[in-house]
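Notebook p. 47: complex prediction with pyridoxal-5'-phosphate.
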Amino acid sequence: MEKKQYERPLIKPLNNGLMNKFGTRTEYTAITNIDGKNVKELLKEFGSPLFVMSERKIRDNIRSAKRVFETRYPKVQFAWSYKTNYLNAVCKVFHQEGSWAEVVSRFEYEKAVNNGVPTNKIIFNGPDKTDDDLVLSIKNDSLIHIDHLDELYRLIELSGEMHKKPRVAIRVNMDTGIYPMWDRFGFNYENGQAWDAINKIIASDKLNLVGLHCHIGTYMLAASAYGIAAAKLAELAISIKKRYNQNISYIDMGGGFASKNTLKGATHLGVDSVPEISEFAEAISSSLLNAGFDNAELPYLYLETGRALVDDAGFLLGTVISNKRLSDGRRATILDFGVNILFTSFWYDHKISPAQEFSFNTEDCVLYGPLCMNIDVIRENVSLPPLNNGDNVVVHYVGAYNITQSMQFITLRPSVVMIDLKGDAHVIREKESVSDVEKNERIIDHLEKFKL
Amino acid sequence: MKIRKNVAQSDSGFIFNPSNGDSYSVNETGKLIINLLQQEKDDEDIIKQITDEYRIDRDSVEKDLYDFKNMLDAYKLTE
Ligand SMILES: Cc1ncc(COP(=O)(O)O)c(C=O)c1O
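Predicted complex, structure tokens below:
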């Protein structure tokens, strides 16, 4: 007689009335394939853990976002936010789809240049641009987004010395009814700082003010906030036109559209509650179209959307190392990936699926990573089928801010593969070796030798 | 270890403890183990029966059985 598939014995109290936070919904649909590639074979070939990026999903996302905006507003330009995922293969998919580059450091700037982005299609944001960075951006005719007054004065000096008039925008922060207000970046709208900065730029006659920028926050759940922000930037642009008869050629609404992840402490799953991109598009375009621009002088709409375009294109595959029972009776499952490579588990309750078929039985458990640190918690409470050692799991929506924020704390970082449109997997970043990490270390002579 | 005499188990894996009114659900292997415990089988018998019926090694069953019995204790289903 053929033996039956084993499942670890389970006993679950039937709580009267007490529902878990996410109702009865559990996450036990097995994910055995990603874009036609078998999960277990991917792990066998490239090792565990493993990041997987779906080229198809990225292209679908950017194409559909473009369609959604372009059907509502005539002049739209996306710029890929490098900080969200700066792997060159990922950036180049976006560039092939027509996205420019949005960077916030010299490191990201150089990545964009090396990727072949024309330098006049690089938007340079952020508060930390050195003289060297500014000089390079002026030479290269990149779009410099000014964050603070010190930068503004420095830029006026440098462009005077270079006899070149750089194209600039100012970053504006404002009250959009959202808490917390991101007022540490840029010039405030309500207290007149932004208007003062604009006057200063135009009076200097050294800078060419071409744009107005804002980034009102990240993982924004209220589309209406974007409507308010767009209206305020449009009002500034129209004031500039009235006062100086000068057109602002673009309004850059930054990033921040929420992805489908579920924020910790949220009462609804992200997939059910996050606004669609079309809602953001509707709010922004109706503000701009109703602002009172002359039709011929409508500014371009720039977007620096990050997470909403890439989060669901990234998966993290991993393996169960062990199961434990905690002193309070809870089941703990230890996985071979930790918060060192899944930084967003500090913000999100990630959706995690088993990578093999299971019965309908589930148990509540806590998921830990392998780091010897108490902070290494992947999920505090999740309902999953019983996982055995060696079983595999798939973490969803990890394409944004994990690869770029990962670190070599306790262990090295794993490979990243991309599955192309034909369903073939390619390594886009090799897993690290000890020598990769030690390459930049130096030993002082007297520390060379020791005896134990 | 013995399951409390008055603890009832239904065919569908529903467990009821009349002494405190608590109820539980168990999966197939959990149900089998409770059945065998009610028949006062010892650990070796239980492990043998499970490894005969299911594709699983002895060590894994032993570990899981030990953990499961601890849970039965914790839920006060044993005496
Ligand atoms: C200036 C700027 N643009 C774009 C982004 C991308 O944001 P998101 O990934 O939330 O869309 C960020 C992220 O913080 C940002 O600071």
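Notes: The radius of gyration of chain A is 25 Å. Chain A touches chain B at residues 3-14, 323, 325, 329, 359, 361, 386, 388-389 (CB under 8 Å).
Next step: compare against the earlier run before touching the bench.
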